[in-house]
Amino acid sequence: MRAGPARAGCTATAVVGLRRHCTSGEQGDKEMFYRVLASETGDRPEARRLAEDLIRWHDEMVLHERQVKHADTQDICSPECPHGEAVRLWRDAKRIFGAAADRLAYLRRCARINHSRRVA
Questions:
Q1: In angstroms, how far is the first alpha carbon of the chain from the final one?
Q2: Which of 5, 8, 59, 65 is such that its CA lies 20 to 30 A from the CA of 117?
């Protein structure tokens, strides 16, 4: 991931707070969680696609958080960082999963961090 224009609010402190969701050994559980959620909400093709998008995004977000945590600078987000995609995925999750989307606390937090910042 290349560093781009810094974004206010995407700091190591903000991102480290999100890491509580991801603990070691959670990879398979995370994938199963998203797939089960899609199944529980009707197992429609769009729900399955969203689950796969969430699995991919989740992996990218965890990697991004690690990069921010270990970066020399406090603001390393670029316009392509996973925070930006979180807003779209959260919107899609609410539309496709309905009330069950409330179980996606990690996605919701990431979307809120993006929503509260501006490109510098």
A1: 18
A2: 59
> Which one, of 81, 22, 6, lies nearest residue 55 by Cα?
22
Q: How far apart are CA 31 and CA 111, in angstroms?
A: 20
Tokens at 101, concatenated: 């989307």
pLDDT in tens, 3-26: 333 333 343 333 333 334 444 345
Q: How far apart are CA 45 and CA 67, in angstroms?
A: 33
Evaluate if pTM is beyond 0.85: no
Contact 45, 113 (CB under 8 A): no
Percent with pLDDT over 70 in the chain:
67
For residue 119, the cross-strand partners are 7
